[in-house]
Amino acid sequence: MPTSYRESLEWxxxxxxxxxxxxxxxxxxxxxxxxxxxxxxxxxLVAGTNGKGSVCAMVEAACRAxxxxxxxxxxxxxxxxxxxxxxxxxxxxxxxxxxxxDRVRPAVEAVEEEVxxxxxxxxxxxxxxxxxxxxxxxVVVCExxxxxxxxxxxxxxxxxxxxxxxxxxxxxxxxxxxxxxAAEKAGIIKAGNDVVTGASGEALTVIRDQAAxxxxxxxxxxxxxxxxxxxSLGLDGVEAEIAVGDEHxxxxxxxxxxxxxxxxxxxxxxxxxxxxxxxTLDMEAVRSGLASVRWPARLQWVATTPPLLVDxxxxxxxxxxxxxxxxxxxGDRPLVALVGVMADKDVAGILDALRPLxxxxxxxxxxxxxxxxxxxxxxxxxxxxxxxSSLPDALxxxxxxxxxxxxVLICGSIYLAGDVLQLLDSGDD
Length: 429
Hints:
The chain has helices spanning 5-14, 25-33, 52-65, 94-115, 120-135, 171-174, 178-185, 201-214, 259-275, 283-292, 316-330, 347-354, 374-381, 391-402, 414-424, and strands at 43-47, 70-73, 85-87, 90-91, 139-143, 159-163, 194-197, 218-221, 226-232, 238-244, 247-253, 300-302, 308-310, 335-339, 360-363, 386-387, 407-411. By secondary structure, the protein is an alpha/beta fold. The protein has two domains: 8-292, UDP-N-acetylmuramoyl-L-alanine:D-glutamate ligase, CATH 3.40.1190.10; 300-424, Mur ligase, C-terminal domain (Protein-Tyrosine Phosphatase, Chain A, Alpha-Beta Complex), CATH 3.90.190.20. The strands form three sheets. An eight-stranded mixed β-sheet has the order 4-3-2-5-1-6-7-8, with helices on both faces. A six-stranded mixed β-sheet has the order 12-13-17-14-15-16, sandwiched between helices. A three-stranded antiparallel β-sheet has the order 9-10-11. The radius of gyration is 21 Å and the shape is globular.
């Protein structure tokens, strides 16, 4: 009897206790049991500290606008595990997700004694790859999880390797320097790949060296082979003038924040690389796709009273990037920041990056054991901070403090952003 969606969620959720264990041995064994569904897929594998989700969404939207079939594998999810497997622009149905779990579960149990129990992330990686293999789309766009070299998605060789930005994050696992982190992310580059990156400085040097070392074909770097100038359109997004080699394009993206112009440039360069690999994709499709892209929890404006500005920024560089856009769209209205941060992040750095906005602050906790305690965040912030551990109560308090004329900024964690969106949309999964 097929597993119900609810039963599949219960089984999958139970695997979360296995934690994070870098390495490819378990996912490779799992995929072998499933018949190596990763073989023959083509598209883009996208790593980076910040912006990788936005770039994935842009590339997928451009491909779909060009009439191509797509599978996009992204992480983490905001409200539902189904969001991690997006087929032709739609999350897989509950029935399809449960069927995929039915396919994967026996393989998971079979490899446990051989190489150890696969982690939840490894199971989801295998599940997504299986979904892609069964669909056989024109393009697969896959977001890397943590780092690159030892991330379970690195079993994929899709032809185009993308590294968006490199900043300090997950230092305990990836290293304490930009060069070390760049080396981990550059581990996704494989022989014969085309490479696109938004990295700069020493991180770019590391990526170029790795591309040459493994025998990559071409490399396009923002600030080198790719250039961009952009300006903000406020709540209407950004407009960008982008050059990839001798090709020039004017694009509009509805995602807020000037940093999205750089993400659009990386996405356009990725589309150019896909075009060089036999994917038929013209500029009108790219322009149309980027103009219609949607990517929740990236400075997402929720038009309630007061309005909410929901962002998943979870490291200092990401918070710094959104500050100018927040200033622009909020203007002189009162600003309240509802903040929750994971305890294993650079908590002090995230709060310091937020201070220039001078918001009224309410600290809270997302529904995960990794969350820093709201009282600890408030103490670190200092005078005037409020700590409310219950997220529904904290959201209510933040709205009251903002009043009808203010704006509530939600940031500090993608998990917090997802929990807030779940509160606003009481879906059942």
